[in-house]
Amino acid sequence: MASDRLETLKQFLESRPDDCFVRYGLAQEYVKAEAFEDAIAQFDKILEIDQNYQAAYYHAGKTYEKMGRIDDARAMWERGVETSHRTGDAHARGELEAALDATK
Question: Which CATH number goes with the domain that contains 26?
């Protein structure tokens, strides 16, 4: 079933490659499949398309954390905090700061 979702999302991206929502869904499916490098590639592409896509910072950091790459996770969350200050997204900032605090 998960591979069906992966294939469906990949097909959607063929016609809408700049659709961050679809990319985010694909990244999450990769995380579920423990295809962490593929997930990171999708989160990176999301942030290339839209640097204000707050959820990508948080979940990319969590993915790095699952990979044992804590420094990369912290760097991603710090980027997200900077972005949240610029966009005024206090909710995202709180989640990102909590993630940072949990890895001290």
Answer: 1.25.40.10
